[in-house]
Structure of Amine oxidase:
Amino acid sequence: MAVYVIGAGLAGLSAATTLVERGVQVEISEAAPQAGGRCRSFHDAQIDRVIDNGNHLILSGNDGIQAYLGRFGARDRVLSLGDQFPFVDRANDARFVVQPNEGRLPWWLFVAKRRVPGTKAINYLADMARLVSATHEATIADVLPPTALRRALWEPVAVSVLNTGIDRASAHAFAAMLRLTLMKGGAYSRPMVARDTLAEALVEPATAYLASRGSAVATGRRLRALTVEQGRVTSLAYADATVALGEHDSVVLAVPPAIAASLLPGLAVPDEDEPILNAHFAVPHRDGHAIAGVLGGRAHWVFRRPGLVSTTTSADAPRDGEDPASALWNDARAAFPDLPFDMPPVRVVTEKRATIAQTPAMEAKRPAPSAAGLKNLALAGDWTATGLPATIEGAIVSGSRAAKLVL
């Protein structure tokens, strides 16, 4: 038995490492020159720093990521940032932290200094009840009233997780994330980041693990077509060769939704995307990592690591003729006042199709791993129906589920 994994983004790497761990022969191919998909890191000559294509916050309750890293001994490549989420409000320069307690019983809601200023415990409990009872058709703005709590906590968290504005984002999808993190207690909702880069944490150890077991990723190899006969895939046509599948061979198709639809006519997939705007600033080396949320600014979150400050603005891109760098730097300085006044060298990166739009309509289009209806093919990707938002965690969980489906 062999399994052909098409696509070496995080979903494909998750599927491949799951299979290899179980002793399955795996052949993994990737159209791009490198593995990792949208999770990639590179040296940028303009600022002379190694940067991630985009910033990603991991939560301690992301069990899929923890299992994935544990598979090849890389859990030490992500760092916990403690139990606080710091915020700064650009409207009045107010600072506050949200600090859930470790246990499941949320006593932190009854301690004012751990909550958003001007909120009460009942506000959190009522809003979470509204979210968990939301219909699949409801948006977050439909469900949550426009309060200080929504502006200061639910909106920045939801927009970063779903990469969709709350007037369009699925309340049901947001509730799914909260159930697995904040609602389980602070032990499941602590912020975590890559120790160095995302590629160093999530991609390089996975590809090394695969190579050590005879399943090196074949990069620059694009699948052109697949042949289906009698309800199963019988061959894979690459640019350089056509591979016939044996009777017991299977395929995990871990490619973006538009490519999956082109390879599998008739497959319904989400067809609306959202961008993410990132800026990376080269700053003097300073030990330690930190994050901060920004309310009312051009940036949503600011990430700090040695020699680099990065901002992320979800569901956004530069407007016509705009150079957002100065505004983003001002937000970074508001978050970390010790940063210099003058803007340092910067690289602005816009991921135009960062994720699917996680609206109720697009959520309904997310296909199950078996949606292609083929006996020996499973779909993987953060855009598939994982029950999770389209995040790193969703991609990794989708890959492991697809792998188990074809075993």
About this structure: The longest strand covers residues 346-356. The CA atoms of residues 378 and 402 lie 5 Å apart.
